[in-house]
Amino acid sequence: MKLYSANMPAPNPRRVRIFAAEKGIVLPETMLSLVDREHKAADHLRRNSLGQVPVLELDDGTTICETIAICRYIEELHPDPPLFGSSATERAVIDMWTRRIDIQLGEPTKMFWRHAHPATAALIEQHKVFGESNRSVLTRAMQWLDTELADGRTFLIGDRFTIADIAALTVIDFATLIGLDPVADNPAVTAWHARVSSRPSASS
Ligand SMILES: N[C@@H](CCC(=O)N[C@@H](CS)C(=O)NCC(=O)O)C(=O)O
Fold it and tell me: Helix, strand or coil for residue 55?
């Protein structure tokens, strides 16, 4: 099994690295240079026709794309600790939170990155006014998250660290890196962020 991946700041490969670290496993990784467009080269397009990372390649040649699908596969092989939940209710609530994070936080971050950030200007036709408008969308989403976390829970779903925390941490760190300010003025988010960032897996 091998993970085709990319270094920080790429948030999706980082999700898989954090997930594997929480499971206590080491995935052999082949790093592609996104700057050199190695993810768009013919050999990688054969692994993932969308030209994205991460991709998990199994020993029989099967390729699994999409971060959450890769993490679910790892969870099947290494059930402990359960990061997708261990009952029907837990699994549904964790799925709900992971979707909420990707839609509410991930979408505006991605749209700002694509349409307003100088690093992507040469790659796609940018619509800067739209891109910039995502700053306030993310600010509102972070205020919403802060009110959710203000009830004193340790992690997004109570007292158990899950894939939803990994999803949120990687989006928030990426958003910070590209010049957004998602944590500021949100005390409950700040405390949660410090807690999840202090886990050894977060340095992955
Ligand atoms: N939905 C995919 C998104 C993967 C993705 O966007 N990866 C980024 C790196 S973090 C990438 O490969 N971007 C290049 C591109 O989309 O062309 C997943 O969850 O794995």
Answer: strand
Q: Whose CA is nearest to atom 1 of ligand 1?
A: 66
| Residue of 49, 52, 74 with the most ligand 1 atoms within 8 Å of its CB, for mutation | 52
Strand partners, 64: 56
Looking at residue 109, the DSSP 8-state letter turns out to be H
Q: What residue ranges of the chain have pLDDT lower than 70?
A: none
CA–CA dist 90, 135 (Å, integer)? 32
Residues 74-117 have pLDDT tens digits of 999 999 999 999 999 999 999 999 999 999 999 999 999 999 99
Q: Which domains does the chain have, with CATH numbers?
A: 2-77 (3.40.30.10), 88-203 (1.20.1050.10)
